[in-house]
Predict the 3D structure of the following.
Amino acid sequence: MASATLYSVSYDLSHLLLGGIASVFPDPLRAWISNGNVITGLAVLIFAALLLAASMLNTILLIWWERKLLGRFMDRRGAMHVGYAGLLQNFADGFKLFRKTTVQPREADALGFFTGPTAYMVTSMILFGVLPISSGWNSGALPLSLLLALAIFSFAPLFIFVSAWSSNNKYSLMGGMRSAAQMIAYEVPLLLAVVAVVIVAGSFDLTTIVYEQQNYWFWGPLFVALVVFVAGMLAEMERIPFDLPEAEAELVEGWNTEYGGMLFAFFMLADYLRSLIGSILVVLLFLGGWTMPSWVPSAATSFPLAGIFWFMLKTYLVFAVFVWIRAALPRVRTDQLLRVGWNRMIPLSLLAVFLAAALVTVKCVPVFGCLPSPGI
Amino acid sequence: MSEMWINMGPQHPMTHGLWNLRVRIEGEVILDVDPEMGYLHRGIEKISEDRHYNEVITLMDRTCYVAGLAWEHLYMLAAEEALHIRPPERAQYLRVLCEEFQRIASHLMWYAAFVQDIGLMSPFLYGMRDRDLILDLFQSYTGARMTYEYMRAGGVRNDLPPGFTDRARKVLDWLLPRFHEYDQLCLGSDIFHKRCDGLGKLSAEECIRHGVTGPMLRSAGRKRDLRRDRPYAVYDQLDFEVAVADGADVTGRYLVRMEEMRQSVRILYQVLDWLDRHPGPVMADQLPRWLGAPYAPVGREGYLLKRNYPKGVGFSAIEEPHGEALAYVVNEGGEHPYRVKFRSPVFANLAASRHYLVGYRVADIPPIMGSVDVCVGEVDR
């Protein structure tokens, strides 16, 4: 079972289910139901449902994790009352938002007002299908999965702007504008930092990038790229210090000022989904994905879900760093973000690309060791 | 984006209360501002004319809800002058104790709100946590955490409970290193300086022209503090420095308030020592009978007592946590003040907002207005 992948599990499940159903029906129908294509189709659906459930569960757990950590940083406990240590608090919050009426401002443009949050949520969810979580939890070998992930990731400002503009609120509009300005500031250095990783790994495939890190994780030799990538990710996730589009002190709630009820919940969930994906990308690109540190005993590495365990552990630790940053830093201003983006982060990311090129040429670094022999 | 007016308030996270800042912006640059006050007007001055002198104290707690004791002190100084009463020295020390603790509590409240405005999350709760310790102290001797009703014409309501001074010293010992932590969290951060340095400039001359007082004036380098320049109560017997900074900007106001809290701690140590060494009465013994409790002697006797009481006019000025607060009380005989008038420092500070906001960006409004330390209760009264 060690080689069981998520897809093979859902295929077996689909086979079992359809086999059971088929035995009830007479022959022509039975033959159609137990047809290979139908089984594959259901397997894909089950696969998607599992992905959805896992992503939602992790997102909600992530909100809990942030609330507890923030609480501790602030010398308090965070959510405590619903469920053990407040674990169910976010489900209760979600349920509350679900029951609330969605209020649409009279002058708002209905099409944009409703499609904006939906598209924001959906694009964030699509991302989860692209990312490999472990060698088994992999939706398929996409040769350009990293590029696809980043492309979908950068859709968000567009949908933010659409929903901000159609809200017909001045604060929302300013938030949307800031979101667009912010994208200009961080997108270029972010992609250049990724280029550094791609140069070293020699592939755009996230799975390959992780396999390239079996000798050493990239965070050490590519530390400059890591710094730029994390800073860019903070801006991409719109978290303090780069949460200008929803700076609540001056813009009330920024681009989602007019949203309430389930539409607000969409934004909230999508925000944390994106935070989760940002942390996952950091783990995949720089922290070796699901590979384990060398000091882990081999008995533990061969444990069925060890890969996923290590992956989630790293993801939540990376997110803890993001929470730490949020607890400790004030918010910057739009013009300052642009200046930091263009004057500091782009030169740094170019340096990172240069270092990556040097690393590929030298192949072996004193402390970390050598790159694995090129596979592709 | 073309030019537009936006309403920041009355329900807006920046306002910290109920007032409206109308801002004309182009893109993110502020072209003009127009502060609108009056949403919280309760007519406190008018209501006071209908109340017994000691009943006005209740209103004072509601005038500024973060510095109630300072406003009680302000009113009591003016009312006692109008009524020709002098409180015993111990009561005066107790009032200074109240005012200085109140100053620290108010500044901590300001700190919490201000850091939240520039996006710092944790210090908000640190400030509130430490303010709570002072509220606990208030509760132990006034019985309340927000609306104290502690001072009376002729002194204070009651003396300190046993063991209070030791508990108070413990709180002060805890607070001093905390101020250092606050500084590390704010001044140690580059982003803080990026957000605050050189913002909301208002020179000392302009401050004086617009009646801007308190930490805003002192941050412009002018060493003016009524506790030193026009000593009231027992401030002339206490040793402290006037906090000044020379930036005339948001960082300067931050520095002034931080230093003021340290100086308040210094004053409080002296006051606590004095209180330990000098037990005594906390109420004047020569009070007219009708002042002791509202409506005490009734009938013709009481009426004559009140009517024949000598008339007078009282004026007081104190250095309230937000700036210079002035009070004017007219005693025309009888148990009600004939006229009560207050000067709120925050009103003047807010009214000058056009002079320190125009030209900056929308994102600068929260730090600048946060550095003004708005308390709408006393603005609208």
In short: The longest strand of chain A covers residues 364-365.
